[in-house]
Amino acid sequence: MAVRRSVTAHLEVFVAKPSDVVMAIAVAEDFDREDEHLVVTLDGTPVDTTLDGPLSFLHDLGQGLLVVDYEATVLGHSPPATATTQDVFRYIRPSRYCESDRLGPLARAEFGNSQGAELVGAISSWVNENIAYTAGSSRPIDGAVATLLGREGVCRDFAHLTAALLRANDVAARVVSVYAPGLWPMDFHVVTEACIDGAWFAVDPTGLAPVDSMVRIASGADASDVAFLTTLKGVVELNEMWVSATADAFEPSDDVAALSRLR
């Protein structure tokens, strides 16, 4: 019987000025869905959304309370992700929050003798051991360098630093937003994928949820590509958010060096 995973997200956002926003809350396109619903209202009036894969674009929002409710149930697993040549070129370069060019000396000194899966596992373990997971400790504008210097962060910071250290050792790496059954406290979650021999393998340096249970939302160079809510124009304020993710069955694991395929 196919594994069933159910996810929900509820957002309440005050739109202070006319705004354009983009949300990344829908599961990735390549899952078989048993059901999926997205309802968006502004002061109780339905809002039209433009969908592009996991992204939802909301244009010309007027002032008021924006309420978003999303739910989906996916069956089985999506095909394992593979990397194109364009992917490798894109995800091996520095990006806004993954400043791999500034971390080169450290990355090569710490991990230069490792390759492939051993390298990915070593970097994930190092980040887990050297960075403290502390809720509310980082700013949205912090990148990998700030996380390294501050020695604390949340899941996006762990993912950024892991990806930056991988890129500094010539491994294409990207960050992935996911729904994560088994995560506590429940929230949107972010992990890192590394390209090994043309295939994407995921690690979660936080060790907070089993990777095998996760449901992909979006993949990108860093959080600027996969944030659950991005303001393109105007002013919005997040008031409330609830996220849930459950799975029929999964095996808990705290091995942050273990590589998995996000499916």
- Percent range of helical residues: 10-25%
Envelope shape:
globular
The parts where pLDDT drops under 50 for at least 5 residues are none
Distance between the ends: 16 Å
**What characterizes the major β-sheet?**
7 strands, antiparallel
Description of the structure:
- With 263 residues, this protein is α+β, with helices and mostly antiparallel strands.
- The chain folds into two domains: 4-77 and 228-247, Immunoglobulin-like (Sandwich), CATH 2.60.40.2250; 85-226, C8orf32 fold (Roll).
- The protein has helices spanning 85-91, 104-111, 116-130, 144-150, 155-168, 223-226, and strands at 4-24, 32-42, 45-46, 50-52, 55-61, 64-75, 132-133, 152-153, 173-179, 189-196, 199-203, 215-220, 229-247.
- Strands 1, 2, 3, 4, 5, 6 and 13 form a seven-stranded antiparallel beta sheet that branches. The protein has a four-stranded antiparallel beta sheet with strand order 11-10-9-12. A two-stranded parallel ribbon has the order 7-8.
- A hairpin with a 2-residue loop joins β2 and β3 (45-46).
- α3 (116-130) crosses α5 (155-168) and α4 (144-150) crosses α5 (155-168).
- It is globular, with a radius of gyration of 18 Å.
- The model has no long low-confidence stretch (mean pLDDT 95).
Please specify the SSE layout and strand pairing.
Blueprint: E1 4-24, E2 32-42, E3 45-46, E4 50-52, E5 55-61, E6 64-75, H1 85-91, H2 104-111, H3 116-130, E7 132-133, H4 144-150, E8 152-153, H5 155-168, E9 173-179, E10 189-196, E11 199-203, E12 215-220, H6 223-226, E13 229-247
Parallel strand pairs: 7-8
Antiparallel strand pairs: 1-5, 1-6, 1-13, 2-3, 2-6, 4-5, 9-10, 9-12, 10-11
